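The following record pairs a protein chain with its ligand, pyridoxal-5'-phosphate.
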Amino acid sequence: MSAPTDKNVSRPATRPATTIVAAGRRPEWTGTPGHPGAVVNPPVWRASTHLYPDMATLRAHPGNEDGHFYYGRRGAPTQWALAQALTELEPGAQHGGTVLYPSGVSAICGALMTVLRPGDTLLLTDNAYEPSRAMARGLLADLGIKTVWFDPMDSGAFAALCPGARAVLLEAPGSLTMEVPDMPALIGAAKAQGLAVLVDNTWASPLGFAPLAHGADISIMSLTKHVSGHSDVMMGSTTAGAQWYRPLRLKAQAMGLVVSPDDAAMMLRGLRTMGLRLEKASANALALAQWLSGRAEVAQVLCPMLPGSPGHAFWARDFTGGCGLFSFVLKGGTARARDALIDALSLFGIGYSFGGFESLATPVDPAAIRTASPWPRPREDGTREEADRFAVRLAIGLEDVADLMADLDNALAAWSAAR
Ligand SMILES: *Cc1c(COP(=O)(O)O)cnc(C)c1O
């Protein structure tokens, strides 16, 4: 389900904080013919069957675009409003649109299925979200698609891999280890060889990084994270310009993918406050990252917004925002001591997600899944300490940062006692 924006958008160009409030609220989706725009939000249109007034209307093909009633699998105004809002938020998507999927993973799958054919080669960043790696090893391999993994921090080596490849899937920063690569260099090298460039932009959202404006072809998001913001609904999206929007839409239709209007309404509700939540979570995260980097128990803090973190200079140059998700590496210790640290936290849930209003902590063990880049990764000064391999990923929420700091202080004491 998706919506183009090249029609019916009559607002003047606005800045992102304004766009996020106004986007997708077409008067015909938030009112009745006699009362256009009568309410603020589009109602939840629960509909599988769409009705036609007469045979002539049924026979006239309504066009394969959203904004046309046809059948439930093509969505109705609630889903169209969300898709259009996401398109309006994505710089560079003006003549394309957004396709919605039941999860972020299905959005990644939909994008890969759109750009790849049997016999093709995919380049995949070595620090990718683990289910993306699993998709390459399983689903794509079964279809005769080869995957080559690369170190995202080595733009020169990446450029040498591009000739002959069909597509690349990038992620910035990496899901667990948070390196920010030189995105313009990677995208430029891939486009010079004609690759389709896909970016998993879940960490930054379009408020923090604009993949299409940087030359990428498809911007992918797990809406489950920042857009939902409340840890209670799952969805994914792909947003693209004119070249890839229709192929993405047709592939999603071929796979029969739909999202429910109830979930779309939840996502629209979350979207309206996303900018505010990201600002607060980023400020909290940066304060905690700075504090952790001064702690004797901590070997390294991996937080894109923190000077000295891998790729911070690229973040400062290319990004317009951050979020609450970052990791830190403990100085030596054992896996058991790290478990003690996480168990000692009382304000952090233990769970695999981020972008909610509440804080979370999980253990990070990248060594087991890296194939093209080393872990522990060398520091900016070139040093690398093998013992410093146990890391923790924190998803920082909207709590008072002083309470989170006190909780972490207590947990570090538990780690020291257990190590
Ligand atoms: C969570 C996540 C996904 C998958 O999203 P789901 O909605 O959980 O399927 C994809 N990419 C990144 C970077 C994620 O963090």
